[in-house]
Amino acid sequence: MNDIILNVTPSVFGVIAYILISIGYWNIFKKCGVKPYLSFIPIVREYNISLCADKEEDGKNYIILAMIYYVLEVLYTVFKDNVKIVLFLFIFLISAAIALFIYHLRINLGLIKVFGRSKKWIWAFIFCETITVLIFGLSKNFVPTKKVDIVPDKYGVKGLDQDINSIDDGLTVNISEKTSYFYFKKKTLLKDIHMNIKKGHMVLLLGGSGAGKTTFLNAITGYEKAKANITLGDIDVYKDYGKMIYDVGFVPQQDLVRGNDTVTLTLADAAALRLPSNIPLKERSERIDKVLDQFGLTVVKHNLVDKLSGGQKKRVSIAMEFISDPTLFILDEPDSGLDGVVARSLFQKLRAIADEGKIVIVITHTPDRVVDLFDDVIVLIKDKTRTGRLAFYGPVKESYEFFDENTMEGILRKINPKDVGGDGRGEEFVEKYAELMKGKVG
Amino acid sequence: MFLFQNDWKVLPISAVIAGLVAFSVGQNLFKTMEGTLMGSFAVACICVWNGFFNSIQVICRERAIVKRDHRSGLHISSYMVAHMIYQAVLCVVQSGIIIFVFMRMNVKMPDKSLITDWPLVDIGITLFLITYCADMLALLISAVARTTTSAMTIMPFILIVQLLFSGSFFSLPEQAMPFTNLTATKWGLTALCAQGDYNSLPMVSVWNNALKMKNVEINNEKPLLDLFKYVENNNMRDDILMMTAKENQIEDYAFSREVIYNAWKWLIMWTIIYVFVATLLLEFIDKDNR
Fold first, then answer.
1. Which of B5, B64, B72 has the CB atom closest to A254's CB atom?
2. CA 20 to 30 Å from A96, out of A13, A43, A249, A386?
3. Do A256 and B5 touch (CB under 8 A)?
4. What are the residues of chain B with a beta carbon less than 8 Å away from any beta carbon of chain A?
5. pTM
6. Contact status, residue B99 vs residue B124, Cβ threshold 8 Å
7. Which residues lie closer than 8 Å to A370 by C-beta, 6 or more apart?
8. Element at A231 (helix H, strand E)
């Protein structure tokens, strides 16, 4: 009988402690703006504590480790009679337990900070977690300084909400939604973006940090598919992604080029990757020479990439993508780190590419020094649900009238959220633009 | 091949390491059982070390470039095969360097062959397979690691596992023995000992330890000293060394084709597994938000 009591007692205590801790977190979650019932679901609870503690990264690591730990524990129980397996599992189990403990501490430290308490409270969390969590949850003196900012998607502003007709001589974008599942949460990254971009146009992509510029570019190139219809001429970008991969050039912000290769070798590698394999060597070589000449790299073609200046490196990076003569050419901040003169010269080259009948889309954070070279501007904003929305697409001149500003930086200031120094009027323009578009498309 | 790259530096480094090992443990390699075990272990360690250093940083240092190239149509399998070919050349050259250094430093090499007609080629293949297996393991680590720093942090841990679980040099509990199959050092050590005909070599440690006790007195007499004098006077020392060796033969190190083929098979199998896993992981590089 005594044996039974001894065996049962710890588990009863365990259950009681779990319920008490869950009650404590129920109240903490209520205070922080998280759904309280999640406090009763293991692992999900820990992730949401990390949200309250403003330690989301640690929370993600914690849940991955916790899942590994539970799997190991199950295996440990299943194979408890097999000494070899138990020994093997034990090493990993101990390692996972140590890592879990560290992440748990870090999350608790974050929680203490959010509640504006002394770091000494961590000892209370370590030695008496149940009571400490109950104090944090039930005491009215314990109030978080920061709430979890979750606004459901249904509270987002209304947009155009209908597809536009595709055009034969350009890019048609009809993105209904781009979502991703992010640790138990569905997150809408982009919503309701529709536009036609004609060939020969050079387009500026404007938007504050987190407005979804890169996600938008990835969606229109098919790299990260969205719930969307994207056509380039009569080709469906998503359905024919295998073919389109060579007709789209994407130049990343960083110069991702091997420094120990010469410029010619770098372009030769790029040509081998991006040009069809049945192209004769002579033709390939001619194409490399042409691109070298077009980007003013002929004089440095035998130099190592590492030895080039910032502007030259950037031109090599662009030339690598341009080698396949893509119809859609996208550049993410090609002028970062370049002075005004070099940047302008680079943008003039891009203008020349657009004039050849290509579509060039460029993200830049210093648009005003080169704005005269652009035809159109796309303005993306982050709404209160943290979703990227289209606030404007059209000619540069019209954008000034639409936003009642005379510089691109002025527009940016108007649409940026208040917490980053903007006027926080982005959503107002999303609705205004939707109305404008409804009038046009009917 | 090394026109603009600095990878050639691993070649002189492997020569220096081989020289140090030849100097410290080469004297009794392939001459006595103990010398062969210790020397083969050291040689396997050089190979693992060389393999690790060849490729531990090659993928992680250009991860962002691989991601960009993959977006532009690069096939990960082609990328991996390119690395495999390049690393194979490095490993062949390094194996050649080790043999060359050992020979120049008068380390006795096996004079009987099992697979080819040339004993040195047999040894060379084993050295290559150990180095290449470790090289591909390091390539896998490089494919997993976020940065060169994290790759270099993981490396010593894996290296320790490789050395500790070599199976023969360190005494491990019976339960831990299955894990030795996971290491390149175990199969490398096995192949090298077998190729050096470990079981036909004399064992000297029993004799040497007994010799240390030659002056022990029992009833004012020195029976061990008398015994040693008797053995020496009758030229029986080598017979005794061989007799003690006979009692300590290891079946796994038998001088046979099967043992060599088995060891090579394991090394090739692990190499293929490492390459396969690394390729599989890199296929998901687009999902990587690091």
1. B64
2. A13
3. no
4. 4-6, 62, 64-65, 67-69, 71-74, 175-176, 178-179, 286
5. 0.78
6. yes
7. A335, A343, A344, A347, A364
8. strand A227-232
- The model's pLDDT over B214-245, given as tens digits with 9 standing for 90+, comes to 888 888 888 888 888 888 888 888 888 888 88
Q: A232, A274 in Cβ contact below 8 A?
A: no
Q: Which domains occur in chain A, in start order?
A: 2-138 (no CATH), 170-247+326-441 (3.40.50.300)
Q: Do A84 and B72 touch (CB under 8 A)?
A: no
| Interface with A, mutate which of B4, B7, B164 (most A CBs under 10 A) | B4
Is it the case that residue B48 has pLDDT exceeding 70? Answer: yes
Contact assessment for residue A216 and residue A412, using Cβ atoms and an 8 Å cutoff: no
Contacts A304 to B, Cβ<8 Å: 4
What is the C-alpha end-to-end distance of chain A, expressed in Å?
81
* pLDDT tens digit sequence for A278-321: 889 999 999 999 999 988 899 999 999 999 988 899 899 999 99
C-beta neighbour count of A219 within 10 angstroms: 26
Across A170-226, the runs of DSSP E, i.e. the strands, are: 170-182, 185-198, 202-207
B73: chain A residues, CB-CB within 8 Å: 245-246, 273-274
Judged by CB atoms closer than 8 Å, whether chains meet at B69 and A258 is answered as no
Note the ipTM here: 0.74
N-term to C-term CA, chain B: 31
Structure-block tokens of residue A228: 């969307």
Burial class (CB in 10 A: 0-12, 13-18, 19+), A223: middle
For residue B84, report the phi and psi dihedrals to the nearest 5 degrees.
Answer: -60, -40
Q: How many CB atoms lie within 10 A of CB B240?
A: 15
pLDDT tens digit string along A92-135?
A: 899 999 999 999 999 999 999 999 999 999 999 999 989 999 99
Q: Is residue A414 predicted with pLDDT exceeding 80?
A: yes
Give the distance from residue B92's alpha carbon to the nearest chain A alpha carbon, in angstroms: 24
Mutate to test the interface with A, among B72, B77, B158, B161 (most CBs of A within 10 A): B72
**Biggest CA-to-CA distance, chain A:** 91
Chain B CB contacts of A256 under 8 Å are: 64-65, 67-68
pLDDT surpasses 80 at B36: yes
Residue A384 token pair: 């209160």
As a whole number of angstroms, the distance between CA B189 and CA B198 comes to 11
pLDDT one-digit tens code per residue, B76-134: 999 999 999 999 999 999 999 999 999 999 999 998 889 999 999 999 999 999 999 99
Q: What number of other Cβ atoms are within 10 A of residue A343's Cβ? A: 20
Q: For an interface test with B, which of A224, A248, A260 has the most B Cβ atoms less than 10 Å from its Cβ? A: A260
